């Protein structure tokens, strides 16, 4: 087995700590979300966006939500990341030393929609190149994910169908983000 570097272990600890805080904020035991995700599978993507002569015509990355549990992202001083809220795109201004936390699809499912996965995109600009490093913290492909039993009740029934994470991921790669949330296909009811 390949030994993980100290830096990637640190990222895992931050992600676990955040899932603990999310759990507690919902009145759940601190390990609730972490236990539901199981062992973290970590992927790191380094994205370089060169200056674009026609930013109005080109996105760096189309709108999507990340399919795992939690994404931690660092960006350089050039802005470009935007998040969607109430049909409006907001720029995530780069701050020195800051880590951007993006709630991803599996966390939305486990919390039964109490935490919503963040729809985001990357816009280009004509003057400066941009660099970002995203660390994805995801369940294993064999893991089945569903709303946590402690959250679901008769008055607050499951809003999402159970899904195998490997299948969910394959679907994402086959269909692509299509600018919308793939997770919506798991919604139960009208
Ligand atoms: O480069 C960014 O700021 C966003 C990257 C991203 O959303 C992704 O890799 O999923
Ligand atoms: Fe993303």
UniProtKB/TrEMBL annotation:
Gene3D superfamilies, alphabetized: B-lactam Antibiotic, Isopenicillin N Synthase, Chain
Alphabetized GO MF terms: L-ascorbic acid binding; metal ion binding
Keyword Metal-binding carried by entry: yes
Domain of life per record: Eukaryota
Keyword Metal-binding belongs to the record: yes
UniProt-listed InterPro entries: IPNS-like_FE2OG_OXY (IPR044861), IPNS-like_sf (IPR027443), Oxoglu/Fe-dep_dioxygenase_dom (IPR005123), Plant_2OG-oxidoreductases (IPR050295)
SUPFAM superfamilies according to UniProt: Clavaminate synthase-like
Pfam family, any one: 2OG-FeII_Oxy
Domain Fe2OG dioxygenase: 39-139
Keywords linked to the UniProt accession: Iron, Metal-binding, Vitamin C
Matching PANTHER family: OXOGLUTARATE/IRON-DEPENDENT DIOXYGENASE
Name of the protein in question: Fe2OG dioxygenase domain-containing protein
